[in-house]
Design goal:
The protein is mostly beta strands and 983 residues long. It has twelve helices and 54 strands. A hairpin with a 2-residue loop joins strand 39 and strand 40. Helix 6 (464-481) packs across helix 7. It is elongated. It starts with a helix and ends in a 6-residue tail after the last strand.
């Protein structure tokens, strides 16, 4: 991609000039230096050295040396920390102090600190909720291809891969590729793309060189973090430019598709550069850039999700059991028979001399692999400027930019092509307060929706009416050429012949005609195609996804513990405003009339910008009693969205620690989730089925809430009517099968969660054990249902019943057996489930340092949803295997500077259910990952060779998702150049 290359080259040139620009005179300061060794007298690289009570710090280089510049008054204390060692403090009395520090080995986690659990520093062992932390060492030692994919090894975490560039974590059930319920923060910034309606994984997150740690909290976190975090939270923290200085370089090369099944063996490259510099410990900056390119995993599983025995196919035609005329395949678009979007009805069929029911036939459609480009890339740039206003107060500005390609699934697959997200952040933080404001800017670039592309490719060949006429005529031709009639023996062959005849002249993948038409369609932001019903639509139709938005977020918190003597008190608040620029096809100006919403104004716009707002505040009280053995937590959060009533979210927790190494906890919390931006305000025309947001005012003039029938009941109704000839009489005779939807106005989702857990360090600090169990209750689960509105009449009337016949999809004229009909309109509506859903589960993790630096660890997770006796208006989709496990074995230093790690992952087979159409079995997954790392301290270098899914056991993670296989890689990292510092 040209823009990616230009940006990357500019970044490299800038990095090359930075050393020349980084000289500064340090007036009034002095330099302290020293050596840090381990308990065997060997140099300890990467240990942090900070002045106690300040943010001034540095880290040791590969030889264990450190130097720190300060103007602090004597005496003061230096604090030395390194993962896996006991922290040490030393009093510095003058500038001539000679420091030689030795750190002693101790439990890997006994002093680990987290902030995500309670928005303030807390020992990991005494966290009030389940939490895991991947520090910089764990991330480097993981055999996963990227640090972000290492999240998949954490207990209870289910990673869903939509693309090489897009992976999304989930915890404790109700998984989906576009996971609205799981929040991801990077240095405090929410990484979810609002208008796309999908979390972005690490597509605009930290580079391999800048990540410091990841904290992940499974389950509800809404009590402190607001209404997006009811299924979990991942908090990514990057390196400080004060502590981690110098120039670093990372290069990874890899290969996937080694079996050649989906694509020829394909190369993957990732390059990253980081430079950071501090001046007089007052001002510091850092800049990161990375570029990744490769060939994506391909979604080519072709399972038929609408087999012939279903009522949405042709159960009255057993002749087609092995040759389904209503085939609706995974990863194929334009053949959506299960949802009734791409079908025609063929009447008047006679087999063996007997008149048969109308035949449902799906349009042929196109495979996803023929519609999307497998080549993907990802450019990431970020920069931070930081200035210390005092010993503990820091003001900073951060900028982050991501440009990405790839495929993700919302309702349908979306190909991202040149999509960009930018963040600007200003933050002021001190010892007991934080104020942060940021804006996120989104632009989807040249992205497009795969379904309208496939629909319009077919419709450019022939309208449904014309295609059906050719199909029926071809059936007659086949009969005439084969004994003069259709029979049970030849009918399947007749349908194949008819499809080929109806498709004759259709553009075929790989041809110039196909490529030219595809290029035209994906460049047009109107998914309708010109017809007698929509005369103003473009001739070819379109599929472009053009969305632009801004998200403004402000937040603050203040620790009042030093002002309130009887307990610790933390208070905070936040405000968020989404600004959407209407595009006329995904988001519209609802103040305009229904007829005009999709039409551009003279100035080219589609109306006034749309705003969506949220406000929140919280208070948290913490109290330690009984000689510090019992710590009590209580918090209350208030959230308000102008479209809903305010919601109060409490959390209560207790941690009992009979001693430092054993900690038991209990937590209760309530959580709410307001509809996301896309769930609330979308207005998408997709295959003449309009997807609409959940806010009730959108229904005005459309009638889908109160004047519609459910899709499931319409399918049952049509199957029964078809058996009787699909006449008006047949329709009226089966009217009782139609179910009026009566959809209520949407309300926020609610989760009630109870959790118990234990964290402990055992066997002389060699064993770490972490166990938790939970039960969750979901009320008002938000999802989608498709409904059918009878045009020009109300449900219950004869005209409404007749309009539900498949043949009356569009307005029709009268025939001998059917009256004229105004047809039907179809909507996919975000609404709440009627049932209450209960889920429960448990996870356990154990790490054992059994001999020298040899470590074995493992975790297992169990998740289950309690079955419901009553049917709901849509399938909620728990979409989580009951059992998953990870086992690892490794030694970070088998011999000096050489380490390895092996991880085995297994998950049980399970059923993936979609609220709309895609449902199917996800087979069990069993894979091995492995890596070997060699450090070369003299050159500040480390080399890593590894593989994920080393035996190339192909698997999918969700129904309709890409087939994933082995990825083999080698990388080199040069760290801490030009500074003497390294981490």
């Amino acid at each position: 991609m040209t823009i990616s290359t230009k940006i990357f080259k500019t970044a490299i040139l800038f990095f090359a000039l930075l050393p020349a620009l980084s000289y500064a005179q340090l007036n009034g300061s002095y330099l302290l230096s020293g050596q840090v060794n381990d308990d065997k007298g060997q140099p300890l690289p990467g240990a942090t050295v900070t002045i106690k009570g300040t943010t001034n710090g540095t880290s040791t280089d590969q030889q264990g040396h450190f130097s720190i510049t300060t103007n602090a008054k004597f005496p003061f204390t230096l604090v030395f920390n390194e993962i896996g060692y006991s922290p040490q403090e030393f009093l510095i009395k003058n500038a001539n102090s000679k420091l030689a520090v030795q750190l002693t080995t101790q439990s890997l986690l006994i002093n680990e600190v987290v902030v995500t659990a309670s928005r303030r520093e807390e020992k990991l062992l005494k966290s009030p909720v389940a939490i895991d932390k991947l520090d910089i060492r764990a991330l480097k030692e993981s055999p996963a291809p990227t640090f972000y994919e290492a999240l998949g090894n954490v207990k209870g975490v289910q990673m869903t891969t939509s693309s090489l560039t897009l992976q999304v974590p989930n915890t404790r059930g109700f998984n989906s590729p576009n996971n609205f319920r799981f929040m991801q923060l990077v240095d405090g910034i929410d990484m979810q793309s609002a208008t796309l309606g999908v979390p972005l994984g690490n597509a605009i997150g930290p580079t391999e060189l800048d990540i410091q740690s990841i904290e992940i909290t499974p389950g509800a976190a809404a009590a402190l973090y607001g209404t997006n975090a009811i299924s979990g939270l991942a908090n990514l923290t990057t390196k400080s430019p004060f502590t981690y200085q110098g120039l670093s370089f990372y290069q990874r090369v890899g290969i996937n598709h080694t079996d050649g099944i989906d694509e020829p063996p394909s190369g993957l490259t990732e390059t990253a550069i980081r430079y950071a510099k501090a001046f007089n410990n007052k001002f510091a900056f850092k800049i990161n850039a990375s570029y990744l390119q490769g060939v994506d995993w391909r979604s080519n599983t072709q399972q038929d999700q609408n087999p012939n025995n279903l009522k949405t196919a042709n159960p009255l035609y057993p002749e087609l059991n092995n040759d389904n005329a209503a085939y609706d395949g995974w990863n194929k678009y334009g053949d959506d028979a299960l949802s009734g979007s791409n079908t025609v009805t063929i009447k008047g069929i006679v087999i063996n001399g007997v008149a048969r029911a109308p035949l449902t036939v799906a349009r042929t459609g196109y495979n996803e692999v023929d519609l999307v480009d497998p080549k993907v890339s990802n450019v990431k740039l970020d920069a931070t400027l930081a200035y210390k206003l005092g010993k503990t107060t820091e003001l900073s500005y951060g900028y982050r930019f991501g440009l990405m390609d790839g495929v993700f699934q919302r309702g349908n697959k979306i190909e991202l092509n040149g999509a960009t997200v930018q963040n600007h952040k200003i933050e002021l933080k001190g010892k007991n307060f934080l104020v942060r404001g940021y804006v996120s800017l989104e632009n989807t670039g040249n992205s497009f929706n795969v379904k309208p592309l496939a629909d319009n490719l077919d419709l450019n060949h022939a309208s449904n009416t014309a295609w059906a006429a050719t199909y029926k005529s071809a059936l007659t031709t086949f009969a005439n050429n084969n004994g003069g009639s259709l029979t049970s023996a030849n009918f399947a062959a007749a349908t194949d012949f008819a499809r080929a005849a109806a498709d004759a002249g259709r553009v075929l993948p790989g041809t110039d005609a196909f490529n030219q038409l595809r290029s035209t369609i994906i460049g047009i932001n109107n998914w309708d195609i010109k017809s007698s019903l929509i005369p103003t639509a473009p001739v070819t139709g379109g599929a472009a996804l053009i969305q632009q938005s801004r998200m403004y977020n402000g937040e603050a918190q203040w620790d009042l513990s030093d002002k309130v003597k009887i307990f610790d008190l933390l208070v905070g608040g936040d405000v968020r405003v989404y600004q959407i620029i209407p595009d006329g096809n995904n988001f519209v100006d609802f103040s305009r009339s229904i007829a005009d919403r999709n039409t551009a104004l003279p100035d080219g716009s589609f109306g006034a910008d749309v705003y969506y707002k949220k406000f929140g505040s919280f208070a948290q009280i913490t109290k330690t009693v009984f000689d510090d053995k019992l710590k009590l937590f209580g918090s209350l959060r208030w959230d308000y969205n102008p479209y809903f009533d305010p919601k109060f979210t409490p959390r209560l927790a207790a941690v009992y620690s009979p001693n430092e190494n054993n900690n038991f906890r209990f937590t209760y919390q309530l959580g709410y989730r307001f509809p996301s931006l896309f769930e609330a305000l979308s207005y998408v025309n997709n295959g003449r089925v309009k997807r609409v947001g959940s806010l009730p005012f959108i229904d005005e003039g459309l009638g889908y809430l109160e004047n519609s029938y459910t899709q499931a009941s319409v399918a049952t109704f049509n199957a029964a009517a078809a058996a009787q000839g699909s006449t008006d009489a047949a329709a009226l005779a089966n009217r009782n099968l139609l179910q009026v939807a009566n959809l209520p106005p949407a309300r926020p989702e609610q989760i009630t969660s109870y959790e118990i857990g234990y964290k402990g360090v055992l066997v002389d600090n060699k064993v770490f054990l972490d166990v938790d169990a939970y039960t969750n209750q979901y009320n008002g689960f938000l999802g989608q249902i498709q409904v059918y509105v009878p045009n020009g009449t109300t449900v219950g009337t004869d005209a409404a019943v007749e309009a539900m016949l498949d043949a009356n999809r569009d307005p029709t004229t009268a025939t001998s057996t059917n009256s004229a009909s105004l047809g039907q309109s179809r909507y996919r509506v975000y609404t709440n489930a009627k049932n209450v859903y209960n889920a429960y589960g448990s996870s356990a993790g154990l790490t054992y340092n059994f001999y020298k630096k040899y470590t074995v660890s493992g975790n297992a997770s169990f998740n289950k949803m309690v079955g419901q006796n009553a049917d709901d208006i849509f399938i909620t989709g728990f979409n989580t295997p009951q059992w998953t496990t990870n086992l690892s074995f490794g030694n970070r230093e088998v011999v000096k500077n050489l380490g390895f790690n092996i991880v085995y992952k297994w998950q049980q087979a399970y059923v993936w259910q979609s609220q709309l159409v895609i449902t199917g079995n996800v087979p069990a997954v069993s894979t091995f990952d492995a890596q070997v790392t060699l450090k070369v301290p003299a050159y500040k270098a480390s080399f890593k060779v590894g593989a994920s899914d080393i035996f190339n056991n192909r698997y999918i993670q969700y129904a309709g998702g890409p087939t994933i296989g082995g990825l083999y890689y080698a990388s080199v990292t040069l760290d801490g150049l030009l500074s003497g510092s390294s981490k």
